[in-house]
Amino acid sequence: MEGHFESGPAALNLFGIPDAREGKVKYGIGIPGALSFLVHSDFSKPLPGLNDFPEKDRPPIMVPFVSYHLMAGVGGLLIALSLLGLILLWRGTLFTRRWLMWLFVGAVLGPVVCNQAGWVAAEVGRQPFIVYPKQAVEWDGGKAKISTSYEGLRTDVGLSNRRVVTTPQVLASILMFGFIYLLLFVVWVYVLNDKIQHGPDYHPAEPMTTSEGLLDAATANKPAGGDSLTEARNEAQVVEAN
Q1: What is the 8-class DSSP label of residue 159?
Q2: 144: which of 28, 52, 69, 108 fits an S-S bond (Cβ 3.0–4.6 Å)?
Q3: Spatial contact of 81 and 25, defined as CB atoms under 8 Å apart
Q4: Are 26 and 16 in contact (CB under 8 A)?
């Protein structure tokens, strides 16, 4: 995923184009030793390179590299966008930035891109194995030597017998799942747009208590003379007592 070809401290590439023939990442811009730090908490700790493994055991380089960095890059942009939103919310100007609201709408697709790109990086990056072999690394003068104690299970061995699952059946299942997910995507966009057009729900004020309602009703029935019904009754009782 990082295009680390030669044994030694490994950089964490931010950008670049991996070239499997030349065994290097062209136009690479990265943080020196950062990948070694992530693995061993030591910037100077060496890591085995792709060239230390037999060529038949190496995965494709370009697809995992690009998809992994796409996932990490889009994820970083989403984090930055969220932090910007928090800062503007703290300053009280978030909802006055219309351009940012549009960015938030478009950013909904970001997690989908990250999810799919990460899946591609994992599935292509584990080739040519379904079950990865158990391997150990021994160092000899700065050069890594890989020893394998379990050969693992290769993808070509794990394929179903063509007499059990035929090629048209596999193609039909792929098309069926593709159609189903396309329908789910359309429904998702429809529901999302409906929620956006609806806007936030406005909750009515809490109703008054029973006692408050009775007092308001008594006030509303106040006679033209000025006194309420309760006051008029009390005054009548005072007159009778006298």
Answers
A1: S
A2: 52
A3: no
A4: yes
Q: Are 16 and 30 in contact (CB under 8 A)?
A: yes
Question: The tokens of 2 are what?
Answer: 């990082």
Chain center to CA of 49 = 30
Q: Where does residue 125 rank: exposed (0-12), middle (13-18), buried (19+ CB within 10 A)?
A: middle
Give CA–CA dist 141/176, Å, rounded: 54
- Of 56, 68, 57, the residue nearest 3 (C-alpha): 68
pTM for the model: 0.68
Compute CA 92 distance to the chain's CA centroid, rounded to the nearest angstrom.
27
Best CA proximity match to 102, nearest among 11, 38, 196, 231: 196
What does the alpha-carbon distance between residue 49 and residue 6 come to, in Å, rounded to a whole number? 4
The angle subtended at Cα 25 by Cα 20 and Cα 31, nearest 5°, is: 145
Per residue in 63-96, pLDDT (tens digit) is 999 999 999 999 999 999 999 999 999 998 988 8
Of 61 and 142, which is predicted with more confidence?
61
